[in-house]
Amino acid sequence: MTRVCLVGKPDVNLRYELFSRETSRDALSTYELREPFENAVAVDTVSVGAAVSLLNDLNWYLVRFVDAALVLEPSVSDGEWLSRPLARAIRDGEVDPAETGDLLKVYGVDDGRLVEPMFLTRVGGEIPDYDLRDVDDTVVVRVTEEEFGG
Predict the structure, then answer these.
(1) pLDDT tens digit string along 105-138?
(2) How many Å is the maximal CA-CA distance in the chain?
(3) What is the per-residue pLDDT for 90?
(4) pLDDT tens digit string along 68-96?
């Protein structure tokens, strides 16, 4: 299963915004919702293609209410998420999934919230330490070259 996680903007109650509108409520109605992080909504889809399609269906809401749209595709990595643009590029065959692990956006997890992402490059197969603050855990997101900075 491919998981989609929408992380709400700090000043937005994401679940409320998504379910107070008929179109987004209908798009999400067939999924079992989870909240892996504070102010986040996650659903499981059947493939990276279905995940990207769902994100496309929800684009109007993503632009207004979502800070990050993440995709966890087990055929690429069991523990590292993909950014929406990278998931789309993989779906479209523009990027080889095996070549996506070097450019990263790493979030800290503090009291269940995703905080202060930092961009890192994997060095010698290892991810440098997250050092913006003390955190309980980290969430690693693979990103495109354009997202990383060009």
Answers:
(1) 999 999 999 999 999 999 998 999 999 999 999 9
(2) 48
(3) 97
(4) 999 999 999 999 999 999 999 999 999 99
Q: How many residues does the chain have?
A: 150
- For 84, phi and psi rounded to 5 degrees? -60, -45
SS3 130: coil
Residue with tokens 């789309």: 88
The DSSP code sequence of 34-103 is B-SSTTEEEEEESSHHHHHHHHHHTHHHHHHHEEEEEEE-TTT-SS-EEEHHHHHHHHTTSS-GGG-SSE
Tokens of 62: 């993503």
Say if strands 81-83 and 103-110 run parallel, antiparallel, or are unpaired. unpaired
